[in-house]
Amino acid sequence: MAWATSSSTPQEKHEVFLSFRGEDTRYTFTGHLHATLTRLQIKTYIDYNLQRGDEISSSLLRAIEDAKLSVVVFSKNYGNSKWCLDELVKILECKRTKGQIILPIFYDIDPSHVRNQTGSYAEAFVKHERLFKGNLDKVQKWRAALREAANYSGWDCSVNRMESEVVEKIAKDVLEKLNRVYVGDLDQQIAKLEQLAQLQYQFFQTIPTIQNCQNHQATVERINELKMERSVRMLRLSPDMLSHLGNSSTKNSFGFSSSFDM
Predict the structure, then answer these.
(1) In 10 A of CB 86, how many CB atoms?
(2) DSSP letter (8 states) at residue 5
């Protein structure tokens, strides 16, 4: 399910709020990140409203307040947007008052440009100070918000790495920070094997051979292994915690060779 929103569509309960500059990353990095978070069953609020007014909407403020974690995608033109900067101020307020987690991401921008408002951010603030020359307190709040947010531990995506790899790592970092475990991959395997087991059982009833019985039993055993692996993952049990189980084959059946590493 795609957990998306617009100004006219009510948003279901979400865990993550995405703050980003649409013209920079909507159809690239942020779009890919949102898709990955959705695949990992992380309910995420993303604003698809392309027409924005001068002031941040009350519904968007509520969306920020309701989130447990805000992902802030800093890009070259993030500082140009009054809307994005107001979002950031609200996100930091929620961190102070509600303990919200902030995860900054620096996409195609040096973190120092955000922290110190240099480069494209310096150009943006020349315009802001000219536009808000009668209300420089607002501009100073934006500057302070950028400095504070840029000092939190986050992800620098300007390094030479595959974007798909970075997006996957960030999504799993979000999952960990939310104290969540993903078991969707196991649920899919279990569901398919349960269907196979049902067909095998029907086939065995039609042709009751030893081979058909063994095929069905092997599938049932694999289902039980995956269900145990799911339970181990949900409980966050480490190999050390299950070391008393003994041989490696037993450990493997408990999920330590899982393709989804947390």
Answers:
(1) 21
(2) B
Give the burial string for 132-148 (b: 16+ CB within 10 Å, else e): beeeeebbebbbebbeb
Distance CA 185, CA 106 (A): 29
Q: Please give the model's pTM, rounded to 2 decimal places.
A: 0.72
* Catalytic residue list contains 87: yes
Q: Is 180 helix (H, G, I), strand (E, B) or coil?
A: coil
Give the model confidence (pLDDT) of 203-219 as tens digits: 989 999 999 999 999 99
Element spanning 70, H or E: strand 69-74
Those residues whose C-beta lies under 8 Å from the C-beta of residue 130, and which sit 6 or more positions away, are none
12, 15, 65, 87: the catalytic one is 87
Q: How many CB atoms lie within 10 A of CB 91?
A: 23
- The percent of residues above 70 in pLDDT, for the chain, comes to 82
SS3 category, 177: helix
Q: If you search the block for the tokens 């020359």, which residue do you land on?
A: 133
